[in-house]
Amino acid sequence: MKSIYSIGEVEQLVKQGHSLVIAGEEEYLRLLSPGNWIGAVANRYLGTGADEIEPGMLFAFDLSEHLLTSRVCVYQSFNLDGLQRDCYGHGFSVVLMPAFSEVHRFYGIYSATLGYRYLNPVIGWVAGANLGTADMLEPLVIDGLTGRIYPDRAVVLHCLLKSDIDAKMQVINIFEPGDGDSMVFPEASFIARSCYVNGKLANLVDYWHEVDPNPQLPLVASIGGALVNVMPLQPVGHNSITMCSALIPGVEYRFAKPPEQMAAQLHRRVNELAENTILLTCCELLRPYLNSSTLQRTDLQAIYAPGEIAYSLQNFTMVGLSLHQR
Predict the structure, then answer these.
(1) What gap in Å lies between CA 322 and CA 326, rounded to an integer?
(2) Which of 64, 89, 121, 269 could pair with 169 as two cysteines, CB 3.0-4.6 Å apart?
(3) pLDDT of 216-232, one tens digit each?
(4) Distance CA 128, CA 99 (A)
């Protein structure tokens, strides 16, 4: 499955009316004509070659072959309920949203309260790259229909599948909660200063330094019947800790149990993905455990992002969408 294209190749697909989900540098995304596509800022991908999107190139998922039609919609934090209302009766929706935006935070809350009561698969990723570093790219998404660029809205491609095709979402999460302290946060936020540790209010930074957790492990909670990770950005601040995904108030988090042979598990799980996986996103925090030899199958390529979407917000996972003939 080809995913890396020149700007000219993507432009041709756009003009031919293809339904596309595109990632790359902002300056290249701006060059594309209006069409049935959505886009997000990104600079790396997981494939069988180099992992950087080269200058003048774009990463794109071309979904057209499997669809009857698709439509682009844009949502703000106050009308996210429209996402479920606007989806097709037989299909899936691809969601892109800027990291640390209000819509990112509200989507975390909204999806947690909704659970998994969507009609169809909802998959996507959080826009941005190199979070927490001097090389961080501004998190932006693009409504390809109008060419408008947003730092604070979610863009969605609602897709109607052909009648003889069904979509299935797969989440690769090798983490589960450990047996340590319970942490409950008082508010929905990316920045946490306090939490209830085993029911007692504590200064989060003081507690963090006291337990000295493994920086390679996320917090894990059960939300809507699924295990969801939240990864803290390193280094920990003096007065607060910034998370890659919004914390959900009232939910019980625990430090993850260290997985055995983490890289080997990831390698095995990703190569067990369905043969007809058409869209794959991977948390950029997993890059140290993945490389060009990870994918033994040349038909798989994934976009690296600071967060993933599989109905709810995910972190430190890989999320794929596969199609199956009836």
Answers:
(1) 13
(2) 121
(3) 899 999 987 889 999 98
(4) 6
Q: pLDDT, tens digit, for every residue of 112-155?
A: 776 555 678 999 999 987 766 777 778 999 999 999 999 999 99
Non-local (6+) Cβ contacts of 79 within 8 A are none
Name the amino acid, one letter, at 300. Answer: L
Nearest Cα residue to 207 out of 219, 218, 197: 197
- Compute CA distances 320 → 36, 276, 278, 300, 323, whole Å: 21, 10, 8, 10, 10
Contact by Cβ (8 Å): 90, 161: yes
Residue 57 and residue 25 in contact, taking contact as beta carbons nearer than 8 Å: no
Q: Is pTM beyond 0.85 here?
A: yes
Supply the DSSP string of 40-107, one letter for each residue: EE--BEESSS-SB--TTEEEEEE-GGGEEEEEEEEE-GGGTHHHHHHS-SSEEEEEEEETTSHHHHHH
